């Protein structure tokens, strides 16, 4: 499956055009592979727009999708819920949507998501759950909360899946579907027009089919240029953190990760294994509920009073935890995070990027965590495992990218490259070289 860059080169060679690619994308979006991936489609509008698109623009009339929490002018913004399905229509596009359109992208629809973005699993009891693109035989979870965005990219229905990442909501579904997900430093991309989960942790970002497409998407969303360079892997000093990230890891994930490390070493990478004892502090720092619970409750409290029965019970349970946090506990949390970030940045200062499994498990069957109180324990166990690794980088205010690192025919596994805030260009530079090496294995 071609990425955005290869498709644009094919335009120049006369092998295809924007209208042909749009019809291909719409055909896939309407196929069983994308069942439940969209909450609202815009196919007729997309056809009209692509006919007048500028082939010289950066996105050249190619399809992108937007997670259901982004404002689209003239439409309500339900964020995967039913309680906001009849909310007032947005008066303008979210900044991220507007920037992708201005770059020549054509929006084909709103994508399904975990209700209000509060889970890494991707289950939605209102709109159904899109099946993971990595296994045609068994319906598996797509990962969340940007579930439909990931499926749209992994199946070929879109070149860019616009989403958000508060604790891994881009990288988790990217890893489980075998695509690329880049979470930039949060402050680099405006969040205006995106319904919030945590104003402290939310990041607007995207999933793509390659690292070079991830760079293009980030440059558009952040209105900045990435300086990735062309240095070989051997020019970078890389670390592997062995504590916490590997707890509870499945053998298939461990095998894929270790094979990826060996492939990178064979390509010249200098990789040092380290411990990061600061990770042990996170449980105590977040003991009162963390930012997402408190900040989501502040946003949802009145809506819960009016329409709480219409919420996904699992989501409501997590939001309501924020009601118990006291003001001094929130302030303590803010201060504790700042101190923790400083200590971790110091510990990683000698490295260009850190390598970890994106998540420690492969995608379980949807049936094992489907809506139902009898499956709640398993749902919350899987959710905690999926969120654990990527949420560390959100707490760090850092940047991270997930790359597929599994062998052909195996369930998708993600390799996460990450660092602290504003190391985006270095992480992307390493990812370009890592992707090149992994594709040769």
TrEMBL record:
Pfam families: Amidase
Keywords recorded for this protein, A-Z: Hydrolase
Gene Ontology MF term list: amidase activity
Native source organism of the sequence: Variovorax beijingensis
Enzyme Commission identifier(s): 3.5.1.4
Protein name per Swiss-Prot or TrEMBL: Amidase
Record-annotated Amidase domain positions: 42-428
Class of this enzyme: hydrolase
Hydrolase listed as a keyword: yes
């Amino acid at each position: 499956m071609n990425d955005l860059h290869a498709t644009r080169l094919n335009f120049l060679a006369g092998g295809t055009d924007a209208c042909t690619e749009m019809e291909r994308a719409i055909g896939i979006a309407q196929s069983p592979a994308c069942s439940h991936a969209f909450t609202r489609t815009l196919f007729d509008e997309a056809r009209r727009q692509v006919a007048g698109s500028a082939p010289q623009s950066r996105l050249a009339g190619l399809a992108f999708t937007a997670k259901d929490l982004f404002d689209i002018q003239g439409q309500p913004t339900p964020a995967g819920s039913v309680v906001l399905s009849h909310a007032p229509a947005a008066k303008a596009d979210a900044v991220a949507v507007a920037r992708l359109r201005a770059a020549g992208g054509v929006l084909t629809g709103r994508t399904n998501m975990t209700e209000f973005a509060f889970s890494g699993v991707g289950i939605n009891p209102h709109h159904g759950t899109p099946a993971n693109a990595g296994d045609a035989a068994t319906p598996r979870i797509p990962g969340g909360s940007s579930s439909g965005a990931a499926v749209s990219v992994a199946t070929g229905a879109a070149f860019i899946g616009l989403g958000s990442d508060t604790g891994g909501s881009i990288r988790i579904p990217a890893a489980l579907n075998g695509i690329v997900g880049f979470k930039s430093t949060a402050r680099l991309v405006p969040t205006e027009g995106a319904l919030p989960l945590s104003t402290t942790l939310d990041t607007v970002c995207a999933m793509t089919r390659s690292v070079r497409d991830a760079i293009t998407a980030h440059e558009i969303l952040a209105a900045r240029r990435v300086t990735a360079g062309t240095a070989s892997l051997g020019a970078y000093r890389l670390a592997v953190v062995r504590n916490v990230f590997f707890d509870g890891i499945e053998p298939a994930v461990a095998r894929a990760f270790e094979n990826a490390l060996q492939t990178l070493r064979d390509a010249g990478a200098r990789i040092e294994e380290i411990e990061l004892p600061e990770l042990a502090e996170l449980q105590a720092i977040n003991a009162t509920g963390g930012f997402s619970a408190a900040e989501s409750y502040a946003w949802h409290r009145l809506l819960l009073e009016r329409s709480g029965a219409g919420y996904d019970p699992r989501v409501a349970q997590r939001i309501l935890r924020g009601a118990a946090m006291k003001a001094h506990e929130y302030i303590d949390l803010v201060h504790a995070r700042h101190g923790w970030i400083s200590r971790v940045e110091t510990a990683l200062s000698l490295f260009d990027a850190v390598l970890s499994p994106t998540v420690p498990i492969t995608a379980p069957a949807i049936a094992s965590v489907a809506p139902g109180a009898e499956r709640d324990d398993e749902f919350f166990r899987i959710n905690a495992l999926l969120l654990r690794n990527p949420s560390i980088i959100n707490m760090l205010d850092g940047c991270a990218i997930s790359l597929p690192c599994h062998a052909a025919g195996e369930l998708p596994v993600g390799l996460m490259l990450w660092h602290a805030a504003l190391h985006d260009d270095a992480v992307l530079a390493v990812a370009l070289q890592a992707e090149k090496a992994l594709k040769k294995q």
